[in-house]
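Researcher: I've got a protein sequence and the SMILES for zinc ion. Could you write out the 3D structure of the bound complex as structure tokens? I'd like something to compare against our soaking experiments later this week.
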Amino acid sequence: MNRTAVYEGGCLCGAIRYRVSGSCSPPALCHCQSCRRATGAPVVAWVTFPEDAVSLLQGEPARWDSSPGVTRAFCARCGTPLSYRHADYPDSVDLTVCSFDQPEAFPPADNIWLEHRVAWMADSDRLPGHPRNRQG
Ligand SMILES: [Zn+2]
Ligand SMILES: [Zn+2]
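Model: Sure. Here is the predicted complex with zinc ion in place.
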């Protein structure tokens, strides 16, 4: 994927804002246990940028080492997961696709860590659907 446009994103409460300008690797949906626990979600969409393509516009994320060599950053105020860095790849950073203002710009290309997938996720797109809540 070659996206050189500028995109911005941030956390739910607005304390942290960031901007990317550069080309990303194809986004992926990660089913790993670590991402699931870090977010409370069954699957997490990630997109990878060169470290120097990402700039922090506002706020300072909290950081936590979730496993050896892995640092996850998030908003200490509202909890939004923002990034993942691995010591083995110091020149790149993964950003949560859904913290971007325009997540539609980063359609996932792959599912990764399917061996960790919650079993019921395999059938989730066959469940009854509603445009809003179950009443609406
Ligand atoms: Zn926040
Ligand atoms: Zn993961």
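Model: The pocket of zinc ion (ligand 1) is lined by residues 11-13, 15-16, 75, 77-78, 80 (CB under 6 Å). The chain has one helix and ten strands.
Researcher: Great, I'll pass this along to the crystallography team.
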